[in-house]
Amino acid sequence: MFKLKHLSVTFTLLVGVTAEFVVLERRDNPPPGFSRLGPPAEDDILSLRLALPSRNILGLHDAVYEISTPGNIRYGQYLTRDEIAQFVAPAPETVSKVTSWLSNNNLTAVPITPASEWITVNMMVSQANALLAANFSTFRNDETNQTVLRTLSYSIPSTLKTSIDWVHPTTSFPEATGSIPPTFVNKTSAPIAGLLRVSRSFMEFRPLRPKKTANVFGVSGFDNASANKQDLQTFLQVYRPDMNPNTTFDSISVDGGVNNPAGADVFSAPEIQYAVGLTTGVQVTFILTGNLSNDLRTEMLDQATHLLSLENPPQTILNTAGFVESGLTPEIANSLCNVYAQLAARGVSYIVETGGFGAGVDCRSFDPPFPASCPFVTAVGATEFDNDEPAETAYIGSGGGFSNFFSRPRYQDTAVSAYLKATNNVHNTAFNVSGRAVPDVSAISSVPFIALQEIFDNSKSTAYSAAIFASIVSLLTNERISAGKSPLGFLNPLIYANPSAFSDVKTGSNTLQCGIPAFNATSGWDAVTGFGSPSYPKLKEILDKV
Ligand SMILES: *[C@@H]1O[C@H](CO)[C@@H](O)[C@H](O)[C@H]1NC(C)=O
Ligand SMILES: *[C@@H]1O[C@H](CO)[C@@H](O)[C@H](O)[C@H]1NC(C)=O
Ligand SMILES: *[C@@H]1O[C@H](CO)[C@@H](O)[C@H](O)[C@H]1NC(C)=O
Ligand SMILES: *[C@@H]1O[C@H](CO)[C@@H](O)[C@H](O)[C@H]1NC(C)=O
Ligand SMILES: *[C@@H]1O[C@H](CO)[C@@H](O)[C@H](O)[C@H]1NC(C)=O
Ligand SMILES: *[C@@H]1O[C@H](CO)[C@@H](O)[C@H](O)[C@H]1NC(C)=O
Ligand SMILES: *[C@@H]1O[C@H](CO)[C@@H](O)[C@H](O)[C@H]1NC(C)=O
Ligand SMILES: *[C@@H]1O[C@H](CO)[C@@H](O)[C@H](O)[C@H]1NC(C)=O
Ligand SMILES: *[C@@H]1O[C@H](CO)[C@@H](O)[C@H](O)[C@H]1NC(C)=O
């Protein structure tokens, strides 16, 4: 009797599940390197982020291209949060369906973007398992022993099928493989060579000084990254003796991030030091993102949505964190890219590195970097000096290639088609010729800096390249704002219309990580150095006219 009843209940439940729920995402196993330890406590709290479908995301993309293209009648007319909401807000019936589903379950959603296309809901594990037909478990990263709560599959009621795009974090694991690797750093006892190299490279724009603080330059730190102000002061004393060595940065906190100088390591030091040291007069703000979520994907999402919610986000943002595309799902890449598109619509220049993986992490696949591959950010690759000559050549580790997630934006059609045609790359069938191509530009990657009160030299990183390029952009933005003009916003349409503002890098190449040659630097745009190194005076001349 009991057995029969039990069976029949199970049967009804199974029918119910298949009839009323649709699976949104599933995977058979956790990724390699993760073990399932068991169920978490039923009352552990999960902070889930739900992506609701935007009304007209393509409309937003079109608007971003218009307001970012010099010569367009709308150039520089950035959108307000309300104007952006017209494109990205979910339809009212979507919002009411989702909120009543949640409130029927005694849950409250909090919007995390101004237009509410992202909402967050805190709930207990037991509630999440019931609500999403999920099985949240504790998984351990076997290398670091860190644990995370994830599920291998989750579903939503079929009545909400068109009302929820996806839920995070669920089936996406904080894999380390695929993250852009930390740069190697070498301490040196002889800083002089580095110093000379730097001053030669920066001679062109170093004397230019903004007269007043007109703009903010945001430098991103993730995973509790911190910077040491004493190292910064030493850097300024050594490399910018003309500046007040007390010049420093302020901060924005996301997910509980705090600057803890004792925990500062070598990774944020060069970015902060070049940002402050190159942009005299510009306010530098360290965007400190804490590690509450223990997952860089979540931190990047939280950072971007936080910036979007600010009344006045920094006009220039540097972000040197990222992944190769294979380390992400298309859902999270698309969602993040759409938040970057909204920042572009607000007039923010979001500048990222292409990472040190070359064309891919292994021998098998071309694997481009993200967020570089998002069409609404500016991706910076790396150069180095050619045998100590002033000429720059491509850095062999410079990330570059073609996206598998994002198709080629129109602004780069001419340049990229010409490259594909001229080089007739032997790997043409191994990478996605129709994808968004990176990088857009490049800059020198070998610069000395101070960390832990010592000079580090002979390290190369696209992060340093991106910091240098972003510094130039924030100086130009300062000049424009001081002259009563709009900030630069999304840069790529301007860049692709003005290749002559860059010093073309024509030598060198990048490789797949195992050493197989991948892309050559060539005359004109290429998939290792983009258009090459920026010239401040030429960019300034062009910008004076738009
Ligand atoms: C749910 O996960 C636990 C481990 O956390 C596992 O023991 C159990 O078999 C899973 N249940 C189902 C139905 O997959
Ligand atoms: C919601 O809360 C009310 C009052 O505490 C309770 O009676 C009801 O069972 C709860 N509903 C759910 C789905 O948890
Ligand atoms: C992980 O835990 C194991 C077993 O407790 C231990 O031997 C190992 O050193 C730990 N690894 C790390 C990176 O903490
Ligand atoms: C710097 O360190 C890396 C990694 O330890 C090493 O491969 C490289 O040869 C070093 N470079 C110099 C110039 O010392
Ligand atoms: C820098 O700060 C120190 C300590 O507050 C002060 O003594 C010094 O005068 C400052 N230097 C300049 C150039 O303002
Ligand atoms: C790391 O970040 C968390 C917030 O996520 C914060 O509470 C904590 O104090 C930080 N730890 C350190 C050592 O900075
Ligand atoms: C956050 O970072 C701090 C130090 O930076 C570390 O001690 C802590 O374990 C981290 N927390 C998580 C959840 O990873
Ligand atoms: C190539 O990129 C396009 C978008 O640009 C995408 O639709 C397609 O799936 C990609 N192909 C592969 C093999 O990844
Ligand atoms: C790169 O250039 C070299 C020398 O010109 C050439 O042999 C090689 O085929 C090129 N590689 C690719 C992938 O186009």
Q: Taking Cα atoms only, what radius of gyration do you get, to the nearest Å?
A: 24 Å
Runs in which pLDDT lies below 50 for 5 or more consecutive residues are 1-19, 189-197
Ligand names: 2-acetamido-2-deoxy-beta-D-glucopyranose
Q: How large is the count of helical segments?
A: 14
- Please identify, by name, the CATH architecture of the largest domain: 3-Layer(aba) Sandwich
CATH class of the largest domain: Alpha Beta
Helix content: 25-40%
Give the strand tally: 28
**Proportion of β residues?**
15-25%
CATH superfamily of the largest domain: Peptidase S8/S53 domain
Shape: globular
First CA to last CA: what distance?
Answer: 82 Å
Number of domain modules: 2
Q: What fold name goes in the CATH topology slot of the largest domain?
A: Rossmann fold
**Class based on secondary structure composition and strand pairing:** alpha+beta
Round the mean pLDDT to the nearest integer and report it: 88
